[in-house]
């Protein structure tokens, strides 16, 4: 591995978790509602309808297994960060000697997030706040913590090489002794017990599935679903919503302006456009202050349209609490691996880099 790519990895890996900055909870009420249904159908049989089972969760049963622990904040689910909670549901407890089934084949990343949102909605405020303030701490190791610790030798050399930057996720690939490690929006494959690292896409030649791209899209969907409509500037579909498009935008970028000029065409076709702020060049970029003003306006949609037409007279100062969204959007864009604006993401996490005319975009999104 060349040192340049290592530095690149370090830069990506240092981008902060986007949900950490929020004062309130990371999920929307819609996710909780949806999560309740998913939880009832998939989880309640073991964890109880309100995530309250089982009282004696610390005691092994006759077969030497732990019973399902409560997920309502009274046990230690809150010792795990979101990535680990997601992984627990995706992979289950089998590979760590537990009995919880894996849901990766049955539930989408969105469904898993909704199920997590549902049981987190049962957490008392004080438990949630501790969790949000302290994702990774665990003074009471659970089964998952033990497995993560046991996997550490696998990533030891990689961690050293990239300066101990945070590795977001380590998972099995289904190929013997090949592990996938996520670092920001990059994926690295470890071979031979972590002695070798390979960077590139992993493709199953039997069925043509690009496993890396699938992982990337799942990651982006999770990242973007953490943004609630209230946090964004949303141009709703006219009538029934047939597709949703998440767009990282900068008011000063000509192709963002061009896309915006056609937004009514997208809306009329049943497409909801959710704008996320992405100031090119970060806090020193040309659109940074304007984006803050747009996010602080009472009518954010109108302000967005004004700014995209280079009319700045009616924009308020960008000094309200909502202007924190601009930095959050910037971090999320970097984490999603975008290199410019506009950057478009479909509901399944597929990336479209750059402007596309509505005549092309509409059929693509509705196909
Ligand atoms: C067949 C019973 C069963 C089902 C169904 C089940 N779980 Fe579990 N779950 C367990 C058990 C048992 C554990 C403890 C670890 C183990 O044995 O695998 C556990 C552990 C967990 C943990 C880790 C908690 C901690 O404190 O470390 C989470 C989170 C979790 N389950 C969420 C879910 C969600 C969400 C669903 C539904 C999508 C679900 N589970 C469905 C039995 C189940």
Elements, N to C (H/E): HHHHHHHEEEEHEEHHEHHHEEH
Q: What is bound: which ligands?
A: heme C
Shape: globular
Q: How much strand content do the residues show?
A: 5-15%
CATH fold topology of the largest domain: Glutaredoxin
CATH A-level architecture of the largest domain:
3-Layer(aba) Sandwich
Broad CATH class of the largest domain: Alpha Beta
Tally of domains:
3
Strand order, sheet with most strands: 5-7-6-8-9
Cα separation of the termini? 40 Å
What share of residues is helical?
Answer: 40-55%
Q: How many distinct helices?
A: 14
Q: List how many beta strands DSSP finds.
A: 9
Mean pLDDT: 85
The CATH H-level superfamily of the largest domain is: Glutaredoxin
Main sheet properties: 5 strands, mixed
Structural class, please? alpha+beta
Poorly predicted runs: 1-23, 136-146
Rounded to the nearest angstrom, the radius of gyration is 22 Å
Description of the structure:
There is one protein chain. The chain has 367 residues and is α+β, with helices and mostly antiparallel strands. It has three domains: 19-144, Orthogonal Bundle (Cytochrome Bc1 Complex, Chain D, domain 2), CATH 1.10.760; 149-224, Disulphide bond isomerase, DsbC/G, N-terminal (Nuclear Transport Factor 2, Chain: A, Roll), CATH 3.10.450; 228-366, Glutaredoxin (3-Layer(aba) Sandwich), CATH 3.40.30. The chain is built from 14 helices and nine strands. It has helices at residues 3-13, 29-42, 44-47, 82-91, 109-120, 125-133, 143-161, 211-225, 254-261, 263-268, 288-296, 300-308, 324-335, 358-366, and strands at residues 169-172, 178-183, 186-191, 196-199, 233-235, 243-249, 271-277, 343-346, 351-353. Strands 5-7-6-8-9 form a five-stranded mixed sheet, sandwiched between helices. Strands 1-2-3-4 form a four-stranded antiparallel sheet. The chain is globular, with a radius of gyration of 22 Å. The chain binds heme C (HEC).
């Amino acid at each position: 591995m060349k040192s340049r790519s290592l530095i690149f990895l370090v830069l990506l890996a240092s981008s902060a978790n986007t949900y950490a900055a929020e004062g309130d909870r990371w999920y929307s009420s819609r996710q909780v509602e949806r999560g309740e249904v998913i939880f009832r159908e998939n989880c309640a049989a073991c964890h109880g309808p309100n995530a309250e089972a089982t009282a004696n969760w610390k005691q092994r049963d006759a077969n030497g297994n732990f019973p399902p622990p409560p997920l309502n904040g009274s046990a230690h689910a809150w010792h795990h960060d979101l990535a680990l909670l997601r992984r627990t549901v995706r992979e289950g407890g089998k590979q760590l000697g537990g009995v919880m089934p894996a849901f990766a084949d049955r539930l989408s990343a969105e469904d898993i997030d909704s199920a997590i949102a549902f049981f987190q909605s049962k957490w008392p405020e004080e438990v949630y706040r501790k969790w949000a303030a302290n994702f990774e701490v665990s003074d009471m190791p659970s089964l998952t913590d033990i497995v993560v610790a046991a996997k550490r030798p696998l990533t030891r050399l990689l961690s050293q090489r990239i300066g101990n930057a945070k590795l977001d996720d380590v998972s099995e690939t289904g190929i013997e002794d090949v592990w996938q490690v996520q670092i920001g929006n990059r994926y690295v494959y470890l071979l031979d017990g972590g002695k070798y690292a390979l960077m590139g896409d992993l493709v199953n030649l039997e069925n043509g599935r690009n496993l890396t791209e699938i992982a990337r899209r799942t990651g982006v969907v999770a990242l973007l679903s953490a943004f609630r409509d209230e946090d964004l500037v949303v141009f709703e579909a006219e009538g029934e919503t047939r597709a949703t498009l998440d767009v990282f935008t900068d008011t000063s970028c000509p192709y963002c302006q061009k896309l915006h000029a056609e937004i009514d065409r997208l809306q009329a076709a049943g497409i909801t456009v959710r704008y996320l702020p992405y100031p090119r060049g970060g806090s020193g970029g040309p659109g940074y202050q304007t984006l803050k003003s747009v996010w602080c306006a009472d009518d954010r949609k109108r302000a967005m349209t004004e700014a995209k037409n280079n009319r700045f007279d009616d924009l308020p100062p960008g000094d309200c609490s909502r202007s924190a969204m601009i930095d959050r959007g910037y971090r999320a864009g970097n984490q999603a691996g975008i290199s410019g604006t506009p950057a478009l993401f479909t509901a399944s996490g597929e990336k479209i880099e750059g402007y596309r005319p509505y005549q092309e975009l509409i059929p693509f999104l509705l196909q």
